[in-house]
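Can't paste images in this forum, so I'm doing it all in text. The chain is below; anyone willing to post the predicted C-alpha cells underneath?
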Amino acid sequence: MNIPKYDLLTNTDSTLFRFESIGTSGEISKGIAYTKTKKKTLYNLGFGDLIFDPAQNRYIIDDLAVSDNGDRNVVLATVAKSAYTFSEIYPDRNIFIRGSTKARTRLYRRAISLNLKELSETFHIFGAMEDENGDVFDVPFDSNGDFYGFIIKRK
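Text version of the structure:
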C-alpha cells in the first residue's frame, strides 16, 4: 500500500506490536495483538489504543476507543504492515479481522477493497461468515458484501 506507515515495535514472537499514532490529538500509543482462536490455524487480529489498566496492573488494547487523531489511513496501513510481518513468520496461520462495531467492520471492508489489488499479491482474501453454532467460515470476498469479518491467508 502506497500509504505512509508508522514504525512498529514487536515482541520476540511477533504476536504483539506497538506504535505511536501522531496526529491532531498528539501522540497516542496503539497496540496490535494476534491471538489464537478455537480454530487451530486461525488467529484474531485485534488493535486499538494501548492503555494501562490499574485494576489489572497491565496494558490492554482498547478496541472501542475513538481517537480521532486525523491519521486513520496511516494507522490502518500500519496494522496491515503488521499482518505482512506476522504472516511472513507464520505463513500457515490465517488472520481473522473483525471490527469492534459494524461501522468499523464496514471501514475495514472499504480499506480492503481500495487496496485489493496490492493485498491480493500476497494474500488470499475472504469474507467471514458465522454459522448458527458460532463457527466462523470463509466465503469469497465481495467489495459490496455484508460480512461478519474477514480472513486473510498468506499465498
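The first helix runs from residue 72 to 89. The two ends are 17 Å apart (CA to CA).
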